[in-house]
């Protein structure tokens, strides 16, 4: 086996950004959220990711602003460390090693240099018992610090971070778990616990789900499983506590949050409605409905200007305090299963798969960003558990990207299967897809496969859909109908219904020039002529049902490949209608690259997946890799590259024209990347950091404006190199502020470095540098 | 925050015929005027000169009707027996008619008594027409002959005895004074030239020929006989061009519309079909009450006149497009100024522009659905005009409620009146195949909910019994249809098998020959 060192598998598509509560910075300009093994810093205005704080080696489980310095942030992770970051520059300041996996982190201004973390109780390894621990953070200038000074505060807490909250000014700490609420007073060093019965008289479940403490008042709000919110007061005595109940949510309240002044209480749940309750006037409430998906977390910025809600569809919505959505940060939506498979939009080269219920998401692979959602179902989404919704199950693009076909279905327990086939045409003016034809009940049973005729130059496109009812249907665009002067849009209609001895078609495939259609009916592959719809030939290689079918491309277009469920891959020569070769391989996925002759086969073998890339005409594979990833690969796609790579190495040549993306059963989007590509990426990311150094301050505005004018005047004149180019200044500008020595010490050195350049550059330039330095300090 | 997505009203395929330009054109006629004649109307002929009166031959009379009056302007009654084929001359002054008593009579349109009588045929004369020369008459009769007569002298010029059966139709050329064509029950069409002794062309129609028609260019000839309408190319020596079989009884009459673009054929199956003359496809169809014997089309298609065996003459006049619509005075609308108020305001440079969000307009039921008022939503969808005019909207709302899982809640808790309204709707639309799946679930849920109160209200019980009867009937129909389908399947299977068998046998024959 040859070592393919320069090709490796990398993750794409980002990870969950809705895992934990995001944090909004003090000036409301940045939003920080835990995302996989890193913390992402987003701009709250432009929705762009500004920095990614990388360093943790485990899942990041919490982000928290440092109470004593609002430009620094703590993050905790399951790797047993707490890290302190400077998030404006994206620099790791210090690492505290705790030694136990950390599940959430809390701090208050009252407790200097102490953070409270939730860790599992070590006695029982498998029992899910957690305790709240106070950690003293030692104040040393070292980068790596051992923080072993732990003291348990509360035992038997929940690992969910929204179940613990600090009370007014950090005087007390409230925690809820199942049916018990515990309030711990630091001064008295004493805790009171309150418990509820499991069910109310009406049968509602009383389990606590979340908690929030009023910042100015002795009041604790708790959310419950039956949608109730309880406001607890007077809990300083064990006996005389009172509570009032607010009820609007129909299902569990997932998050609660008070605004910094304590005037409003925000709550959210599965209804995807943000509810704003007035404190002390609870019958007045504001709603922000239809936020798209169930709310998992609600947060408020420290100045109260912005709210943010995290949603179950990997989305963070930023809301102004006047209850108006201002920005949406959307990650790649990963549902339970991707039924449409991975597709590539030929126009935008975006990856298309189903995301939100009833939508198709278009995900730009180059920019690693979700472009938009296309609403396929066009129905009001009802947030209710146990309700059967319409799901997009199949989608297909034609070669030019002009037409999109989608299939949606809804299966109710007792009723018939509801199927809709929709055809969308691309509108040049609005640059989006417009619904052209809806075919209700195109087939009597589930549609197993759907594909467009591939030939890009042909006048008419044909869509073929195969279904479990034993038929495949060909759909064609009709001629525009002229009636009474009003021209109607041409619509799609069924052109041909084909069947083969009552067998169930499982896959279908058009040849590259659109002259042949292959339909796999269980064990038999039938080849049809799409113009006259006559059955040309049948190919068969029993036993085993045909699972995948694809035609060869370019010089290999005479081959038809198929894989069946009895671990066989067959290649037929269509000129002789005979079997060219066959091999025993358990191929779960077979796909063809439209830019070259290459084909990729994913084989699933005991828990891991192997990849083979080969040409149908050659006996040896071009590339093979064992154990590409753990688990089964469920979907894969070749995407064309915008710029061709020029790799001379034989093993990576197959990645020159296109990239291979694949999705595992754990919903990880992976791809192969070559060394050259990575180097290019690294270079571009370095450039980005340098561009970012100039901040918009009044000083900059004043001088920057002046400088722009200045530049405009002497645009034609030859520009002298700026002082930034000198090594000393570069060093000075690129080292973070907190590592720098005192300003007074630096000043003379800096001035010295300028002395040389002053003779040749204008004074304005040096001033601008000074301004930049001043901003930094 | 996304806006509320209103209920999708599916654009259901319209049942019935497709609307094309042709259907619009041919439907643009007023309700027919029906006139009772004395017997079966055998022929209708329009006068070629304005005001385009038409002669209707029925039993022993010929009536001449004006274009607008429903009373005949003139009547010719001096026939001893049934009259046939009353036709105008090209100047509209003279009228000729055959008769059962074998005498051909010539009338002046203004006069009453016959000007001339042409005697010579031995049997009933079914065809009589003027030639283009204006001084000769063509007649054809059941004695198998056709003859040419000189009008002023009433002498027979020529007699052709080539047909071997009754001659029942004939047409004279409008461009050539010597040419005429006759069709006979001996299945042949013959083209005669009066300058020669014999027919110049013979075509075989295959059925007794009932009617003939020449195109204005006279390159094509249309013949009707049996169930077939056939088009012949005369310039290619009588080559058959098309054979149309769209009627299921004998085609009796043919006509061409004024532009020559559409061909009409009338038949005993009570239909008039309109064909496109470029592709010979049926573009429209008229239904009549009885078997049609004669058909006439006024110049410019101003009216369609049809004579039937039940002696009714039906006249359809074209609707005038310029006819002012009899609507009441249009409602006075607010003036232009009202709508333009504030619209032409141009903001100044430093003005802060506050955009007004566009308000989403929602239908009444959508407003209720948005508020999750499911019962009210169903009530608004069941409003009288909506459920009568647009049942698809009501069904769509029911479907939406079902999708939301709240249909049961919406249907429950209704009083007698509301429930009977709902049941009426269900009964009325149950067997519309587009709505059946939705309404079946609705009916099921209604029965589930209200089964404990059945028998308390007579109205509801009546509705339920009605529904039950309808269902039984439908099941009976379906059973019948399934039986027929089974029979057809066996028949098809048998025929296929036989074909294959024949193929195989032929194959064996070939082999044995080898």
As an assembly, this protein is heterodimer
Strand order of the largest sheet of chain A: 6-7-8-9-13
What is the percent of helical residues of chain B?
25-40%
The overall strand count of chain B is 28
* Class based on secondary structure composition and strand pairing of chain B: alpha+beta
Cross-sheet strand order for the largest sheet of chain B: 1-28-27-26
Main interface by residue count: A-B, 23 and 20 residues
> How far apart, in Å, are the first and last alpha carbons of chain A?
56 Å
The gyration radius over C-alpha positions of chain B equals 34 Å
Shape descriptor of chain A: globular
Sheet with the most strands, sense and barrel status of chain A: 5 strands, mixed
Main sheet makeup of chain B: 4 strands, antiparallel
Low-confidence stretches of chain B: none
Strand composition percent of chain A: over 45%
Number of helices of chain B: 10
C-alpha geometry of chain B? elongated
Describe the structure.
The complex is a heterodimer of chains A (777) and B (514). Chain A is mostly beta strands and 777 residues long. In chain A, the strands form 15 sheets. A 5-stranded mixed sheet of chain A has the order 6-7-8-9-13, with no helix packed on it. In chain A, strands 1-59-58-57 form a 4-stranded antiparallel sheet. Helix content of chain A is 9%, strand content 46%. Chain B is of the alpha+beta class and 514 residues long. Helices cover 26% and strands 31% of the residues of chain B. Chain B has helices spanning 21-27, 336-340, 364-370, 374-381, 384-389, 391-403, 407-411, 416-429, 436-450, 458-513, and strands at 33-36, 41-46, 54-58, 61-65, 72-76, 83-88, 94-99, 104-108, 114-118, 125-130, 136-141, 146-150, 155-160, 167-172, 179-184, 188-193, 199-204, 209-214, 220-225, 228-233, 239-244, 251-256, 262-267, 271-276, 282-287, 292-297, 303-308, 312-317. In chain B, the strands form 7 sheets. Chain B has a 4-stranded antiparallel sheet, with no helix packed on it. Chain B is elongated. The mean pLDDT of chain B is 88. Chains A and B meet through strand 42 of A and loops of B. Chain B: InterPro entries: U3_snoRNA-assocProt_15_C, WD40/YVTN_repeat-like_dom_sf, WD40_repeat_CS, WD40_repeat_dom_sf, WD40_rpt. Chain B: Residues 345-490 form the U3 small nucleolar RNA-associated protein 15 C-terminal domain. Chain B: Its main location: nucleus. Chain B: It is found in: Nucleus, Nucleolus.
